[in-house]
Write a structure and sequence with these properties.
Bound molecules: adenosine-5'-[phenylalaninyl-phosphate], magnesium ion
Strand content: 25-35%
Order of helices and strands: EEHHEEHEHEEHHEEEHEHHEHEEHE
CATH topology of the largest domain: BirA Bifunctional Protein, domain 2
Helix content: 25-40%
Strand order of the largest sheet: 3-6-7-11-10-9-8
CATH architecture of the largest domain: 2-Layer Sandwich
């Protein structure tokens, strides 16, 4: 029995996600049906989505640039299949988030019950992965926050986490006589630049390597043309902490947070003998800058006018997004038999030309959606889907019929096809 306490609050009994069932608690539940729909989209696994392209590009770069001694194998493990519902311990406590921190509130985080929430950042997986023994890893995934919605914010967005841990030798290189660098110091002081446990040199080298890694990544993505700046920041699980901003759309846009991992976190995860850094990238923000996508909501578009600009592209390709029309699409198909012995490949290029020539600006896309050969009649059939859309106005069905009719006539006249 469901007895709503507040008017119209939708509280299902349970939520099933990523193969696990969570029993909801009305007092905490604040997930909307619309948000559930977002969890089902899995944009990062959709090859036509720019976020998928960007993810692969960053992973390729990190694999290429960060390798084991001897240079043969990449050091970063890539984790893409972590469960998206995490415990309050994983999302907050393990990351040393104070009990009264705003991010814990039900106004900021989506809760299923007292214990479990939708992850608000990929940092939620740091503790458990380090505990499992991973020293160097990337975590990619969708994260959820009760944020405002505008051009740069959306309640579901995507992050990539990076964690890199070092022993003294890994951080400073093999020890040399007379040079005795240490990771830790006792009775040290916590300052703006370092944690109390860290030796000054260790903290400085970590900060340098962290910033170098991220600047190098941004140069690979944006080339030399991009303007970037470092800003001091605060996160409960890193110190010192920084944010990187990139100049885009006439403003500075924050694209990532990062810092030197709090030693207390590493200790509690069983890696207290190492030191390390971590970063969390906002993939949408980077993709907006990289591909010139002006609004974060576009990543959720199912409009083929958007998706076609990324479909079939490789991570290394340079792509600049061309704004699509705000008017609706209309599509019509045309199917015909080619004359006997007419070359199928040639027909395709001829067909694309013919359709564009007659349809002009009204044709947004053409694709062949069906092709087959009938051995009995020795005939080949083609079916093309034509997507009509105007930049200036809403097209009427009648208007499109006229254009489509002309295209059909030209196919018959020029190529002697038999309409099916
Ligand atoms: C974090 O989420 C930290 N976990 C990052 C981190 C990781 C710090 C590891 C230190 C070590 P923040 O809330 O600032 O930090 O988000 C990180 C990035 O996600 C932002 O820089 C931004 O690019 C992106 N981001 C944040 N909120 C949104 C949103 N609502 N929509 C789209 N992108 C967002
Ligand atoms: Mg931030």
């Amino acid at each position: 029995s469901t007895k709503p306490t507040s008017a119209q609050k939708w509280v299902p009994e349970k939520l099933e996600l990523d193969g696990k069932t969570y029993i909801s608690e009305e007092k905490y539940w604040n997930i909307s049906p619309n948000l559930i729909k977002l969890t089902e989209r899995r944009l990062l696994f959709d090859e036509a989505n720019p976020l998928n392209l960007l993810k692969r590009r960053i992973v390729n770069h990190m694999h290429k640039k960060h390798r084991k001694p001897g240079n043969r194998s990449p050091i970063f493990a890539v984790c893409e299949d972590q469960r998206r519902i995490v415990s309050v311990f994983e999302n907050f406590d393990s990351l040393l988030t104070p009990l009264d921190h705003v991010s814990r509130r039900t106004s900021d985080t989506y809760y299923v019950n007292r214990e479990y929430c939708l992850r608000a950042h990929t940092s939620a997986h740091q503790h458990s992965l380090i505990k499992q023994g991973f020293d160097n890893f990337l975590v990619v995934g969708d994260v959820y926050r009760r944020d405002e919605i505008d051009r740069n914010h959306f309640p579901c967005f995507h992050q990539m986490e990076g964690v890199r841990l070092y022993s003294a030798d890994e951080l400073f290189g093999t020890p040399q006589p007379g040079k005795d660098f240490k990771l830790f110091e006792t009775n040290g002081e916590r300052t703006k630049e370092k944690q109390e446990f860290h030796a000054f040199d260790a903290a400085k080298v970590l900060e340098l390597k962290l910033k170098e890694t991220l600047e190098d990544l941004c140069r690979e993505l944006f080339g030399e043309k991009a303007q970037m700046r470092w800003v001091d920041a605060y996160f409960p699980f890193t110190h010192p902490s920084f944010e990187l901003e990139v100049f885009f759309g006439e403003k500075w846009l924050e694209v990532l947070g990062c810092g030197v991992i709090e030693q207390k976190l590493l200790e509690s995860a069983g890696a207290g003998s190492k030191v390390g850094w971590a970063f969390g990238l906002g993939l949408e923000r980077l993709a907006m800058v990289l591909y010139g996508i002006p609004d974060i909501r576009l990543f959720w578009s199912t409009d083929t006018g958007f998706l076609h600009q990324f479909q079939g592209k490789q991570p290394g390709d340079s792509i600049q997004y061309v704004p699509i029309s705000v008017h609706p699409q209309l599509y019509m198909d045309i199917s015909f038999w080619l004359p006997e012995n007419h070359d199928s490949t040639h027909m395709k290029s001829d067909a694309y030309d013919l359709i564009r020539n007659i349809g002009g600006d009204l044709v947004e896309q053409v694709e062949i959606i069906d092709e087959f050969y009938n051995p009995k009649t020795n005939l080949t059939s083609h079916c093309y889907r034509i997507i009509y859309r105007s930049n200036e106005r809403v097209l009427t069905k009648e208007e499109v019929n006229v254009v489509h009719g002309k295209i059909t006539e030209e196919f018959i006249r020029l190529y002697n096809v038999k309409i099916r």
